[in-house]
Amino acid sequence: MARRDTPEINAGSMADIAFLLLIFFLVTTTMDSDWGLARLLPPPPEEIDQQDEIKIKERDVFVVLANANDQLLVEGEVLDVSQLRDKAKEFIANKARLETLPQWEDITVNSAKEKLSAITAEDGQKKWKKRLEAAEILGSYTLTKQVISLQNDRGTSYDLYIRVQDELARAYKELRNELSQDRLGLAYDFLEEKAKTDAEMKAKLTAIKTVYPQRISEAEPKDAQQ
Predict the structure, then answer these.
(1) pLDDT confidence of residue 104
(2) What is the pLDDT of residue 218?
(3) Eight-class DSSP state of 122
(4) pLDDT per 10-residue tile (average), the chain, 226 residues
(5) What is the pTM of this model?
(6) Strand pairing class (141-144; 104-107)
(7) By C-alpha distance, which of 218, 221, 216, 191 is closest to 205?
């Protein structure tokens, strides 16, 4: 009886099939995405030099703490996030000139010129030149020594952290918009857009930012106290 050979299986195309299956699963599989992380990190604090930091007093610092229980403590008082913006605006501007809020200084063209002529340090001259230019564009204004200190516990939720950041940024933007509308008759958003291509608008934008520099200092997150 003749011996029958066992037929062989053609495996030449298995690699191609495996490759096609891999592509199929890559295309059809839903990948997790961190949608909230698209937000840009806040810009560095504006116009805080080493000399300013040395002179900072307790009344000049607005302490905002988001704790591990997702509670917001503002100056040691429990506050809802929706109240933070108005509270921050009151502190930043100190329009009532309260002794419990930041120190203030009235800036005029003449006072800025006097300061500029009396200062020899390059950093100081640069700072007072900006203040002089702001007074020439906007007229006299009040400058406060405000600094916002934002602190978080390691257990603070990302959602609360972002909401607090947004409210503080909006506080500065609303104050800048109010000043721009009052002194220039222009919306702050319009000023920002035109400043990209117009040198005159850029100078006006810089003047507004000089009056209300965004000063948000973030401390490194720490473990909640037991």
Answers:
(1) 95
(2) 86
(3) H
(4) 59 70 76 47 51 69 92 92 96 95 96 92 91 97 95 89 94 97 97 95 97 89 56
(5) 0.75
(6) antiparallel
(7) 191
What local confidence, expressed as pLDDT, does residue 2 receive? 55
Residue type, 147: V
Count of Cβ atoms closer than 10 Å to residue 177 Cβ: 19
Contact indicator for 143, 52 with CB cutoff of 8 Å = no
- With tokens 């220039």, the residue in question is 184
Pairing of strands 147-152, 216-218: parallel
| Residue closest to 92 by CA, chosen among 83, 84, 102 | 102
Token couple for 64: 């905002």
CB 123 within 8 A of CB 80: no
Q: Which residues contact 92 (CB under 8 A, 6 or more apart)?
A: 62, 102, 144, 146, 148, 171, 172, 175, 212
* Domains of the chain by residue range: 48-218
CA dihedral 88, 94, 95, 98 (to 10 degrees): 130
Rounded to a whole number, what is the largest CA-CA distance in the chain?
A: 120
Residue 110 near residue 176, CB atoms below 8 Å = no
**Cβ–Cβ < 8 Å for 141, 130:** no
Sheet holding 77-78, edge to edge: 77-78, 72-74, 61-66, 147-152, 216-218
Amino acid at 135: A
